[in-house]
Amino acid sequence: MRIITISREFGSGGREIGKRIADILQMDYYDREILTAISEKTSLDEKYIEATLNSGLFRNFNISFGRTFAYPTGNADALALLTHQHQIIKSIAEKGNDFVIVGRSADVILEEYRPFNVFVYADMADRIRRCRERSGDKDVKDSYLKREIKRIDKSRRDSHAIISGYNWGDKMGYHLCVNTTGLEIKPLAPLVASFAENYFKSMSK
Amino acid sequence: MRIITISREFGSGGREIGKRIADILQMDYYDREILTAISEKTSLDEKYIEATLNSGLFRNFNISFGRTFAYPTGNADALALLTHQHQIIKSIAEKGNDFVIVGRSADVILEEYRPFNVFVYADMADRIRRCRERSGDKDVKDSYLKREIKRIDKSRRDSHAIISGYNWGDKMGYHLCVNTTGLEIKPLAPLVASFAENYFKSMSK
Prior knowledge:
By secondary structure, chain A is an alpha/beta fold. In chain A, 55% of the residues lie in helices and 11% in strands. A five-stranded parallel β-sheet of chain A has the order 2-3-1-4-5. In chain A, helix 1 crosses helix 9 (188-203) and helix 7 (124-135) crosses helix 8. Chain A starts with a strand and ends with a helix. Mean pLDDT of chain A is 87; it is low at 58-73. Chains A and B meet through strand 5 and helix 9 of A and strand 5 and helix 9 of B. Strand 5 (176-179) of chain A pairs antiparallel with strand 5 of chain B, so a sheet runs across the interface.
């Protein structure tokens, strides 16, 4: 089974790279599908699940764990949702199909399957530009987008820290780190896919 | 003019990737050629030049600069050699030929030419193995190799810090970061070359 995980800074174009790689290599693709699965399991609203997982409320979890049970409610919810997410990601792998998965610390959760781990990043100006295009609102302020980007990156970093010895974005935790600054996303996808194929060929020896 | 700079952790196989990319893309290649050029300019021995540039003696240079002229002699030599190296690298670019250059903070020195910057890295066990093979001495101790690897990486980090706002190895300073852990070097070179070609195509638009 071949698994590719894509971790990415918010606004770097990593999700698009992941989607395109899945098309190129004809692999299953998981991203928001995970939120839908959690929603089915918990009967919670997808938007609530997403907001809670992105809230960064659990930022001190790894420090307070084992010392106190006095989490704010938000932390308990986030923790329960992370646990569901963890189980769902594991169960996807247990199906045995090749797949690409974006975000959600899948690089760490699926470590035993030796996935090919990619990190996608870009400079802040580029990410602000991409987020503005995506929002469809050309009047939204740079300062607002920058704050949102930093907040979401922080929640990704924090939830990653709970389960991994490597920091989110530390290149040692990835096989390939791709800077998309100033580049079109589309032509990057087959290049990353070639690195992944070389890796899987090498692993199968 | 197309320039590719390869920065690399000691023992990661980065030099081989650089050499192969130059062959694939039919570009000039610079690595030890720079030491030869410094030697011709200064009448110093190449081995002395290399040892001084790798000595890490100038580690506090960026801190003490402007505050004191009381460098140890080694620092003054290293600084003079870095200055020569800087000029030689600039003069290579002024020739106008496409080229690949390995190490020597060329990513920063040649910034105005918008080079494609690659960082090559690997985990410590892999780098120790590669250094042992390269040394041709299978009895050399792991602890010795590890110390040497750390020392040389440190001198690279320090000499980079003198001239750059980015830390050596900080992925934001590179277009692509390639982890060679567990992989053969040879098949990686054309993959990196493809990323470089995509970058140059995009820059020429």
